[in-house]
């Protein structure tokens, strides 16, 4: 059970005053999140213009690792980042400072090829599942047991519906015997609901400005580190 900090995601410039968009800001923010109790960092590297970029991975990972030695750091490979399957794969193949893991959305057409590429260069795969269909697609892959982690990521905002989707995904994984670590997280209205569910099921979770800017009690957080502090406190309630 860990808390991962997801510090920026695809959020726009004006989403939150503390959203880290430059490499330097990501490094500082990551260090603050680790100090607050985050076990890992997940981030979306940005180019000089602030737009998401797979070409910015090397420099970003280098600086974040310097700020957070010994901490696992992962990135997204979302198809929207480059908007082109070939360009996405070319940029990943060109990485020289490798992240520890990279998230791959099983809903995306090129997911199997991206997974194969990441495994080939020695980067762990965080398999992102947002639906039961995504889970079925994952377990049908010949090398599904090689994935570093299962990322159950629920976008649905209605709590009971979101819960049913998460349960359906978990059922597919169990039926297939795919026993990989699970990290569960929500988005906006469901963030804290799923942090608590992860605590109950002894799964890992994540919080950060990628997923939402509100604390469990409803007020807007000052920064990513405050969200991490709240999540770590909630997760530790399991042992009390």
Automatic annotation (TrEMBL):
Q: Which domain of life is it from?
A: Bacteria
What Pfam families does this protein map onto? Answer: BKACE
**GO MF term (any one):** 3-keto-5-aminohexanoate cleavage activity
- Name the chain's protein: 3-keto-5-aminohexanoate cleavage enzyme
């Amino acid at each position: 059970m860990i808390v991962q900090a997801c510090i920026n995601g695809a959020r726009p410039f004006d989403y939150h005053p503390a959203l880290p968009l430059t490499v330097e800001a990501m490094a500082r923010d990551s260090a603050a999140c680790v100090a607050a109790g985050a076990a890992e960092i997940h981030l979306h590297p940005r180019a000089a213009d602030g737009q998401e970029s797979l070409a910015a991975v090397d420099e970003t990972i280098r600086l974040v690792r310097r700020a957070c030695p010994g901490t696992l750091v992962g990135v997204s490979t979302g198809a929207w980042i480059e908007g082109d399957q070939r360009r996405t794969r070319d940029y990943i193949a060109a990485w020289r400072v490798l992240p520890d893991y990279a998230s791959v959305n099983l809903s995306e057409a090129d997911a199997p090829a991206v997974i194969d590429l990441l495994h080939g260069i020695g980067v762990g795969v965080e398999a992102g599942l947002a639906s039961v269909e995504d889970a079925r697609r994952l377990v049908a892959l010949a090398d599904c047991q090689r994935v570093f982690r299962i990322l159950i990521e629920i976008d649905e905002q209605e709590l009971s519906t979101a819960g049913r989707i998460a349960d359906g995904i978990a059922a597919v994984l169990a039926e297939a015997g795919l026993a990989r670590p699970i990290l569960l997280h929500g988005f906006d209205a469901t963030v804290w609901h799923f942090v608590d569910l992860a605590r109950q099921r002894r799964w890992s979770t994540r919080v950060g400005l990628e997923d939402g800017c509100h604390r469990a009690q409803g007020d807007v957080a000052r920064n990513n580190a405050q969200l991490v502090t709240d999540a770590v406190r909630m997760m530790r309630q399991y042992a009390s």
